[in-house]
Design a protein that fits this description.
Helix content is 49%, strand content 0%. The chain is mainly α.
């Protein structure tokens, strides 16, 4: 057995789990996936408020807060 044979077997073994995840969702199962708790961010308003409070209190430089200032509340 040469190296190409091992490479082919390796690629096949890596692709099998990926191909098994490609399935069609039945119409009666789509309601389960559309539930709010299945979303990546189930409560976007609460997450935005928490990010705003964290940015304001910690003066953390992130996309949700201003870039300048220190912990004293200055800008």
């Amino acid at each position: 057995m040469n190296i190409t044979h091992f490479v082919v077997i390796f690629v096949i073994l890596l692709s099998v789990p990926g191909l098994s995840g490609c399935v069609n969702v039945a119409p009666w199962e789509r309601g389960n996936l559309a539930k709010p708790q299945m979303a990546l961010d189930p409560n976007p308003l609460q997450s935005a408020i928490q990010a705003h409070v964290y940015g304001s209190r910690e003066a953390a430089a992130s996309i949700n807060s201003s870039g300048g200032g220190g912990g004293c509340g200055c800008f």
